[in-house]
Amino acid sequence: MFQNFDAPAAPVIGDNRLIQLRQLMRDNNVTMVLVPHNDEQNNEYLPADKERLAWLTGFTGSAGTALVTLDRAVLFVDGRYTLQAAEQADQNHWTIESLIERPPHKWFQENATSNDVLGFDPWLHTNAQVKQLKKAVEHSNSRAVELASNPIDQIWHDQPPTPLEPTQIHDFSHAGRLTRDKLQDMQAKLEENQADLCILTDPASVCWLFNIRGQDVAHTPISLSHAILRNSDEPLLFIDQRKLDMETKAFLTQVASMRPPSELAETIKELADGARVMLDGTISPFALNSLVEASGGTIIDAKDPVSLPRASKNDAELAGSRTAHKRDGAAMVSFLAWLDAQPAGTIDEIEAAKKLEQFRADMAGNMPLRDISFDTISGSGPNGAIVHYRVNESTNRMLQAGELYLSDSGGQYDDGTTDITRTIAVGEPDVEERRAFTLVLKGHIAIALARFPKGTRGVDIDALARMPLWQHGMDYAHGTGHGVGSYLAVHEGPQNISKRGIQEFLPGMIVSNEPGYYRSGAFGIRIENLVIVREEMDIDGGDQPMMGFETITLAPIDQRLIDPNLLSDDELHWLNAYHGWVNREISPLVDASVADWLQRATQPISRELPAASA
Fold this sequence. Notes:
globular, 19% strand, Creatine Amidinohydrolase, Chain A, domain 1, Creatine Amidinohydrolase
């Protein structure tokens, strides 16, 4: 299994770790210290040795920050984790605050005095975050200082080792472009920005650029590494060579000069003197800004030049993703058929999640399941209403008759990354559940059918998915879609469909289409397919070509939850055409009993005729 379902760890009882940290603070003449849930490369999933927040507080959620003073300790979490934080952190020593309503910089403004000195690790905060901190410091006439080393690392005596999982070559048949060709494009970016150097801090960018993948971080196939691109010499790749076998090392030495990660800072000091250096201030650590400027370099604040080429998939990456989704679809359909055959009240959330992962592994064939793309969301009844719910042994529920079951999952394969959500009726759904589900489906179809001119952004079409819900006084509190990588991160920027989605859509981008609706304490609904942004196409009778989306996820949508009378002709046509396509593509890949189930699950539907008059 690529996931476990252990209940959250027991609280870190007592203040022994706080006592050690506070003594270190006194030794360094600081009165406050920030401990974020972050690592030096802004990874979504952290290596075990970077789980500093969890070690200090006991809190194991994916978003949070601790602020420790000489006499107070505050843990900031968002609404997803309020209950979990209260269970895991010893509240005799920790106060829980909202990361959204009263984040650390606001708390600091309200509580700091002119005598306070805030210490922070410059490797764990971006340039934008440090600017925010410094504004808060100015407001209270206090000071902020960069710490020379991370204080948690100094007192965490049984800290796990840095991961050294093997790095693999990402085969050209999946990558679609040679590293040398990609590097030529990066040279053009350096020239365009009149830059001498570019420092890449996102491991996903480094891995995509050099056609490698790794296993250093759970669920995201990256190898932890940095790179420095140079306008007049070969790039420098900072990677621990203990992760490289002979073949991979020989492959990389053809395109880069390799150095150990420990030499990154000194190398930047050497190269930055008098140089113009590209850095993405939204993701790179503040420490790099300090290194460049202290070495006499000039910072060019520019987006990671790899991010857009990485997001705009080439033909080989798109072909691989389509193939991965067929294989993944066969696994999902097999799971749905199995689930439908289980009597209500006999299967729990954990068993369902395990069974789905097993189907993915069994269906993989000669393209093995390398990992799941994130911890499966497996929520029945009221648990489904928790948007980012992760089942564990203490929250596990049976799938009961009359409830909805929400499954959000995905796989990592050499040829692509998948992410799919289906909401399933257990027993007979009620009228309100069918109405809410159909409104979500209408929003999903609106995105699938959308046509839009070049230059359109996610923020421009987000409302299409929400409109059916808005008209009934309903909404959802998450984005409509996120970017997805090519055997990389399942959450990939810069593209997304949301109220903050300002990146224009480019052909080849993959993005999720996942509107939802959640009724606290009752049920959750989400329908998610992945779509590819298509090239501009002429429309009969139109004045200009339009872009659109190609759906690539293959699995039926539960028709027991659909009220066809709420669907328009175009929406009914899309649904029936989609189901016909799913049946044609997946039936040959599954056994006869599953194919029979799929045939029934994808039968065309029509509106109910009005009752005949007497």
